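Interim report, section 4.2 (structural modelling).
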Amino acid sequence: MNEQLDERLEQWLRHVTLRRAIPTLALIVFLIAWNRGIALLYGLQALLIATFLITYLAPRFNLRRISVARSLPASAQVGETLTMEYRLEKSGLRPSYMLELFDTLPFTGEAGQRSVAFIDRLKGVDRLRLNLSCELRGEHRLGEMSLRSSYPLGIHESRLRLNEEKAPRILVYPRTFPIHSLPLIGSSQAPISGSMAASSAGGGELFFGIREYRHGDNPRHVHWSATAKRDELVVKQYEYLQHTHIVIVLDLNRRSLYGEGRHTTIEYMMSIAASVARFALSQGHQVGLFGLGEQRIQVPLGQGERHYRNILELLARLQADGDTPYHQVVHEAVEMLPQGGVPLLFEMNAAHTPEQSLDMYRHHLRPLRVRFNTSSFLEERTTSPRRAGGAGNYSVYRGDDLSELFNP
Amino acid sequence: MSEEGKLAHDLPLGDRRIYFSLWGMLFSAAMARLAGETETGMALMSLLFWGVMFAIALYGGRNYAQTQNIIWKKASDTAAVIGILSFTLSLLGGMTQALLSLLLWMQLAKCFTMANQRDLFFAILTSFVLLIFSASESKEGLFILFIALYSLLGVYTLLLHHADKARLRALVTQAGDGGRPNFPASTLLLTGAILACAALLFFTVPRPSAGNLGAQLDDGGHDYYDQRWEEEAQNGEKSETREEDDRDEGEEGGRRAQRRGDSAADSGTKPPRPEPEEPGESLDYPGFQAQFNLDETGTAGGGDDTTQTAEGLPANAIVLYLQAPRSLYLRGRIFEHFDGESWSNRVQRERKHLLEYGRYQISPGPRQGEEVKQVIETAVSMEGVLFATPSAVELGFPGSVIAIDQDGSLRIPRRLEAGTRYEVTSQVEEVNGRTITRVDNPPERQRFLQLPSGLDPRIAQLAARVMASGSTPLEAATALERHLRSEYEYSLESAFSSQNHTPLARFLFEERRGHCEYFASAMTVMLRTQGIPARLVTGFSANHYNPITGYYEVRALDGHAWTEAYLPQYGWVSFEPTPYYPGFMPEEAQANTLEQLDDYLRRMEEIDALTTDADAPFDLYEELRRILLAVVSLLKEAYHAIAGTLTQHGPFLAAALLLLIAGGYLYQRLRKRLRDRLALWRVARSRDGDGNRFAITCYREMEAWFSRRELPRSEAETVEEYLERLVESMPGRGDAMEHITNGFTNARYRGAQSDEHNQALFSSFYAAIDKKGG
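Predicted structure of the assembly:
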C-alpha cells in the first residue's frame, strides 16, 4: 500500500517542473493578492511572471549568431577511441551562456541525439575535443546536430538545428583480434609427411624430422643414411611451407541475425572474418570472400595488404540483408576454392547440413567452422560456459572473448 | 517509475556553491520574515539563530550527501521534534506564527540531509512560501529590497543548479571535469533584467479590487477581553453619562482631567488598563480623549516642536496602516459641546455589545451606498477607540465586547495595543464626494447648535457673509469650507495661547493660520451661528497610499479634526476645512501604480519638509528610506524625461529605430554576400602580382569562402585533409580545389609558384567556388 502511494507520489512529482511550477505559483500568489488586496504579493507575482518571460526570451537570444562545425577521422575500428572536434563560433559582442551541444553519433551505438558537450560561455571561437569509443561497425553518416539552451534557469528550452551541407561520414571497420595459429590442414601450421604432403600443390618444403617407414610412404622419402644406421626403413618428414587458399563464406541471411547492438551474430561474424583474413594474409595464404546478401559479395582469392584493406572495407559495410539459405551460399563459394582449400564457415546453431558435407568431400576441403549459439544472443547474458571444441571448430556465445576462443 | 524519472529527481547536487546560495535564500527569507518584528533585539537574535542553524544544517547536508554519515540523520530527526514542540508553543501567538515556525524547523530538519535536486526544490519552495507570508504581513516599502536580494540569490541558485544538471548530462564540458563556471556578472545582469521587467509589470498593470472571499481575521495574539463590559452587554444595560465620562482613559486621561480641573474624569467604573508603555510607542492625540483643549492639539501637543508628539513619537511616524479600496477619513470621536476652549460631550449614551467569534453585525438591515472594507492595523498604542469610516455595518475585532455610542462611535474596553488588527465594513454614501451618515431620527438640534458664551460677533458675521453665496444649506456650507481652505494657512506651529478667551477669533481675524482643530472648530461654530447643526469629528485622514505595500500609511501628524453638518436631506455631511488635507471631492479615475507612486513621493516630500529636524540623531533606517526615495525620484524624473522626449520626438525616434532594425536585418541578410564580394575583389586585385602571393591569397580566400558555408578547416587539419573533405562534399569541383591547394603548397613551402600560372589559378578559384567569370 505504502509502496503504491510512494509510486504515485513519485509519478506525480515527476511532473513538477519549474516550467509548470512558476505559472502555478504566480496564479496562487495572484489569487491571494487579489483576495486580500496586498500590493507586495502583486509584486511577487510580477516577479514570477517576469522570471517566466525572461527565461522564455533569454534562450532565444542566447542561440543567435552561433555556428558549429564538427570533424572526425574518416575511419576507425570497433573498440577504438577516436577524437571528434567541434568548432563553435559566436559572433557579435554579447557572449552566449550555458549551451548544450547535442549530436547524433550512430557509431557509438546510441540511437538519437545526446548531449555531447556543455559550454558555459561562448564568445568568439572555441574548440571542444571529445573522445568517443566506436561501437558499431559500418559506414555511418553523422546525424543531425543541434544546439540547445535553457539559459538561465532551465525553464524553457530553445533549440537551434545546425545544418551542414554534407554531414561527415565515418567508416568503422570490424574489430579484429590477434590470432596466433589456425589449424589449417596442409599449411605450415600442421607438419605433414610423405604422400599426403605431396598431394598438396605449391609451396616449398622444410625438413621437419624422421620417422619409421609406414606402408604407402613414397620410397623417394626414405632417409637412406638413417635407415643404414638404425637397420630399419626410415623416412624423412617435411614441413610444407604451403600457401593455402581460404575463402570466408559469410552468412548474410537476415534470418541469421540474432542479438542486438554490438552483440549480434553478424558483428561477431565480421570480427572473426576480419581477424582470420588478417592472420591468413600475414601468413602468405590467399584469402577470398564470398556472401549472398542483397547483393552478391565476391572477393577473389588474393594476397597482400591492399587485398586486406579491400576485404576490410567490404566487411565494414556488409549487413545481414539477404534471403539466400546458407548451404546455397556455401555451395557456390566452394567453386572458388581449389582442391584442398579451406572454407571458413559460419553456422547458426545446428551442425552443417548434408549438402555442405557433400560439397566438402567432393572438393577435398577441410573447413574451419564457427558455430554460433544463437539462443545466447537472444539473452542478456554476457558470459559463456567453458567448452571444448575440436580442431577447426569454434562455438561462439554472446559475450565471448574471441581472442581467447581462437587462441586457447 | 522509469529510470529516467528517478534519475531526474535523484541527481546529486554536484556544485558546492548551490549550498551557499541556498543558505542565502533561506536566510534572506527568514530575514524578510523577521523584518516586521517590532522588537528589534529579539528579531536580531532570531535572525542570528536561523542564520547559524541553516549554515550548520546545509554543511551537514553536503556532508551527508557525500558520506551518508548517520549523525546528520539524527540531527535532522532532532530538528523535526523541536519543530513540533515549537509549533505547539507558537500556537499562543496565533496559528500563522505557529505554522511558519513549523515550516522553518521542518526545512531546517530537511537541510541536514539535503542530497539531491528534489530536496533543493523543496527548500526553494519553502523559502518562497516564507517570502509570501512575509510580503502579506509587511507594511514597509523597503521590503522590495528583500525581494531583490531574494531574487538575486534565487537566480544564482537556479543558474548553478541548471548548469550542474547540464554538466552531468554532457560527455564533455568546456570547463573540464573539475572546472566550475563563474556566473556573477551573468547573474547580476539577469536579476536586473528580471527585476526591471517585474517593476514594469508591477507599476503598469492595473489590479482588480480586492475579492475578500472567506478571509479570516488573524487576531495577532491580542484578545480584548473585559468581564465587566461583557456583563453589561449581557444585561442589556444602556449607560448614560452627563458631562464627561472618561472611564476608559486611565491615568493619562485622569491626569489631563485633573489638569483641566475637570472632576468628571473618572466615574469610578474604570476597567483595568495595561502598564504605561515605553515612550515613543504610544500616540496620545488629545483629540481622541473625551475632552480636549484646542491649545493641547497639534502634532507637537502644544509645544513648538513639529518633529514629534508630546509622547516623543516622531510626527511622521506611522501609527496605523489601513487597507482599503480608496482614501478614507477614519472617524474616532464626535464632539458636540464647545466652551470656547475645549470640546467635549455633555451627554454620553452608549451600549455594550457582545461579539460572536470576534464579529459583530452593527447594522443588520440593508443599507445604501458602496460597501467599503477597511482592514486596520495599529503600529503604536493609542486610545481605546476603533477608527472607521462612517456608517459601519460590520465589525471584526479580536475581543469579546465593544461599546457603540449614540453617534455611532466604536469603543473598546482598553487602549488599542500596537499590532492590533481589526476590520470594519461600512456602507459609504456620498454626495459630491462627501461622506454622509444617514440617521433614522433627526438629532437634537440644541445639542448641535450650542455656541460658547462670549463668542466674538465677528465670527457670526463672517459666516453669514461667506455663506450667503449658497442657495442651499449644502452650498452654503461648501462655500464656508472653500473660504477656510483658501483664505487661511495650515501650520503645525500655531498653538497660540487662548488666555481664557476663545482662540477662534484670533485664528480667524489675526493669525489666519493654525492646525486642523482650529479650522474644524471654526467651521463647526460658524455653521452653528447660521443655524446649521454641526459637530466636530476627530480621527485620521488616511490618504497617503503607498503603492508598493498597498497600504494607506497613517502617521502621527494625520491625527485630524474635521466637521460634520446635519443637512436634513442627507444626514450628517462631512466637510474638510483644513487646506493641507485633500478634502472631500468627487472621486477621480483610478490612477495607475506609477502615478500613485509619484503622488506618494510628493506627499512624502511634503511630510519631510514639515517634520524634518536638522538636529535629529542619525537613523540608518530613515537614511535608507531617503536614499530609496531619492532613487525612485530619479527614476520618476527619468521616466518623465523619456516620456516627454517620446511625446515630442516620437515619430523621428520611431523612424530611427525602424531604420536601425532594417539596417541590422539587411546586414544580417547581406553579410555573407558582402564578404564574398570582398573576397572576389581581393583575388582579382592580386591576380597581376606575385605568383606566390596570389596562390596564397587564392587558397586563403577559398578557405574563408567555405568557412562561411559551414565547412571550416579545423586547426588540426592539414591542407590535404581539408582538401579531401572538401572534395568529398563537393566532388564536382575537386580538380579546381586541388589545383588551388597545390598552388598554395608550392607557394607556401617551396616559394616556387610562377606568375605565369596566375590566370589558371584564377580560373580554378572561380571554378572552386562555383562562380562564373574566372
